[in-house]
Amino acid sequence: MSYSQLDRPVQFLKGVGPKRADSFAGLGVTTARDLLYHVPRRYDDASTVEPIGHLEVGMDVSAVGRIRSKGILPTRRGLRIFQAVLEDDSGMITVAWPGQPWLDRKLREGDTLLVSGKVRFFHGRQLQPREYTVLGRSSTGGSESAIGSGAGMIFVSYPATEDIPQWVLRGVFEKNLDEMLTWADDDEYVTQRMKVEHGLPSLRDSLAWLHRPETMYEAERGRRRLAFDELFFLQLVQAQARRKAIEERPGISHRRTNELIRPMHEALPFELTGAQARALREIYADMRSERRMNRMLQGDVGAGKTAVAVFAMLLAVEGGYQACMMAPTEILAEQHARSISSMLEPLGVGVTLLTGSLGAVERRAMLGSIASGTARVIVGTHALIQDAVVFDSLGMVVIDEQHRFGVKQRMALLEREGPTPDVLVMSATPIPRSLAMALYGDLDLSLLDEMPPGRTPVKTALRSPDRRPAVYDFVRSEIAAGRQAYIVYPLVDESEKVNLLSATREYERLSSEVFTEERVGLIHGQLAAGEKERVMREFLSGDLDILVATTVIEVGIDVPNASVMIIEHAERFGLSQLHQLRGRVGRGVAESHCILVAEPGEDALERLTVFRDTTDGFEVARADLRIRGQGDLFGSQQHGRDPALRFADLLADEDLLVEAQQEARAIIASDPDLQREEHVQISNHLHARYQHRLTMYGVG
Ligand code: ADP
Ligand code: MG
To answer: How confident is the model at residue 488, as a pLDDT?
Structure first.
């Protein structure tokens, strides 16, 4: 990318210099561009700032004034209060910060402050700030203009540090913003057409509004354009991966004969839900086209993904191809083989289960039937595609629990010889549509957002630790009625640092002191894989009544007879995790219960209450995103190297994400290598800023 003034080290900006440049690094700002993209933390609309003379006891206000005098006031009880008298043209007020005497060193007489908080009565009116910002310091000059200019002013506050306080940042912006904005034109990539179609302002205007808005509306328009940029480039990389997956190699046009699909419909003991029917239409359309399918089927546990996948596999099979389904573990593969087998048996279609535990002879026979094409529907672990399993005519691959498989494995399917099979990845982790689009933009998305009718929702209750005896009594009564229970802990071993119950210790206590008549097993992530499978099988076959566990049981396992899920220290688990755990019960005919044992603080209480009151996985997921924020969104996937989304808000900006995805896909469809004149800037920007993502997806 050609050199831009924005690449200059921040040191060379007016009012910075080498020493401050070091401190700027602490804010993640090393170049002029970094500074220009330093996102304001908040905006305060001056039209809502009250003149100090008008402040009255009981008001909750924002006020701006200059420090006239200040000092530390000791109280009789030893508390030290920092006080400042704030003044504007209309009057004066005392502002008090109890217990923060160090502010005396940070704030100076003559500083201009923006404070917000409640006005109380204490020796006259007194403001006790929740928040304050130093808008200006008289020694820096200039900043004074920020005060008292009346309506139409927005106060901008930035993330600041001890070394680069607010007023320094403001001063540096004041001296350099105009010039930096002219440099910003170098970074503009949005074409005239895009501006018109998406109503996007220029980059220069957007950045100007970000830092110096005259109205809240301008600040929002600026943010929205910058959010579009973030989403657009994420989608652009994924659009390239998608194109590679579906177009670079010939796909298969599956032929629908209805030879199997119709009898399957007739044999099905239920009607497909609207969501299942919609997903199937999308999948059939993909499969019948000559482009390869690369689609994700997302739906909560029990939404009926397996049934959809079976229909999709039948489309491949009735047209003469083989279909396979891969699961993350052997137990899950067996489970799938069993349920698919029972669906396909009446149609005379056999299911071949290929796992690592087969004997050599048996395995050879199965590999033979897969290679000769006698085996039509094959179920196994992901070793199916990694090993040298040779298929006769693989036309369709279903990948279960996609989050256990990375982008790499998905892309690895493309490396196979010959026509590339259609791919359907299934995920039982409900996430909001926008989050799915952001994370899996290279896939097309089908959502099962409707549960089959007639389910009894799991009853969820919140209990404090002192109610444990009653909880144990309840477990006992369920077991007496022939059912089974899980008891989940956040830790395997007792940790010295935190006072938490651990699975291992509690297993000993529960089995020797509490559930002496019942059969109790233990499973956790530190057991060897074979041992885990053995314990799981014992529970599955009913040889254990209670399974003490960590979150290893979170995914996939299906024990219909288990009707109770106890989660200890529930406050330690995220909402999505809780939802996955709850999904382990409620899979049979019996009414099921999820009991959260916790002594939650206020934050956790909000989470646990939301969880108790809804069983809709997508709603839980939205709440999770709202409460936790999107901070480490890409963390696990991209090793923290990506800039997090700083402007875009996945919950609020879903419409923008849809536009960004459509735009990115349209551009890649018409100009796959971004070689057209009007796309040169896009290409430059992509390679300069997103090279590691391109590499991750194997497209650049
Ligand atoms: P998932 O794979 O999404 O967890 P499954 O496909 O295993 O869900 O379906 C869960 C249960 O619901 C199965 O017993 C299945 O037979 C049943 N089921 C699936 N679709 C429907 C439907 N449309 N109506 C009623 N029951 C259904
Ligand atoms: Mg196809």
So the answer is: 95
